[in-house]
Amino acid sequence: MKVVKARAKPLDLSNSILLKGEFREQFLAQPEASDPIVAVSGCALFDKDERLLPLVSDYLCGNFRKTKLADASVFSFAYRISYLLDDLKAKSEYESTDRDEALLSVSLGQLEAYLGGLAEAGLAAKTIVGRDAAYQHFFNTYLCKRLDESPALREDNPYETGLIRGGTAHPRGIIQPCSMQEIEQLMMHTPCERERCLLQAMYDAGIRISELPRLTLQDIRNALEIQNIHYTSSPKDRPLKSDYCPLVIMGAKGSKNKYKPRSTLVSRATLERIEDYHRTPLYRRCSRRYPTAKETPAFFNAQGGAYTTKSVEKLLYRVSKRAVKSNQIRRNISGHKFRHGSAYLFLNSEDLGADYADRLVICSRSLGHNHLETTEIYSLIPQDIYRKLCLPGSIGKTKAAEMQGLKERTFKPIRSGDKK
Asked: Ramachandran region of residue 396, left (φ > 0), alpha (ψ -120 to 50) or beta?
């Protein structure tokens, strides 16, 4: 199946088949006939035969146009519903149903069997709960809800009492974070200082791969300058050189397509490494096309353009593949493993709080978690046991010291003639 979306996309109706058919007069009587260029916004799901699925598409359009859900959530829900439809259409009782009509009659028992089958097939608990939540939203807010004066499309609601599978999207298992040794090997397997700089920034700040493209030159400047503004009393005072600076990040999980800003503590060593990159002729050449520092990306790709979520994913995949091939690491490293590694740095840096509880609060705020329980999942090994697992002498290093050492071991000067 295929999801198609458009937001305020121009559409020329002058070549519409309505102008040539039996509905020509009706079309000419519409306002669009006087100005055939219209702006189209909507989201639709099509089956493998390129046929529109009307029920699901109407549900998607309502959420997409009014931004009741973030765009990424709309697309995710569309695909999750399509997986359920594929499963239902493969059953004999739904072979003759048209398009997505099976959703009007699917029973609680059939939904239980489908979700249970996913577990038996080995899908992760997080994946199953995500699908269950998508179906709950579809039934509760569209199929089984009265819209305006119209009756609900179906009276019985299999989700009337809540999620079918229940449980949690985060199984209580030990998380495998990206370690300091792994991040160093990833950085050593790219010859570009700008990419090494980007990887250290992601690891230190716990940035999601979808958030990094929104990090700007002005954000880095603000992080380094904030102490000069707030912690000096006169021009004669020397600026403080704290080990950490607050970096504002436009978070990726705000509601209604809005970003949720948060502040995270980043090591000064990392920010100064980024600042050194910003002073290079390579960065300055790329930044000339942007009018202000607020619009200038903090990092540029090999073509001199801004990074996207996909290009950051590809960068991680590329350097992971190289490091695995050279037998320096044993697995591919995803962006979310960077977040887990960042959490361990926060929780084990004794300069960031009097005790583990203090560090947990700082870590939670820095990673943008609404609940401490979410942050605790990032480090399920009790801290006293975790310390026993670490190499002798490794405990006691602060987050700032780790980042300073990483910078010193992996720094590669950018020459004036370098093109990427």
From this structure: left
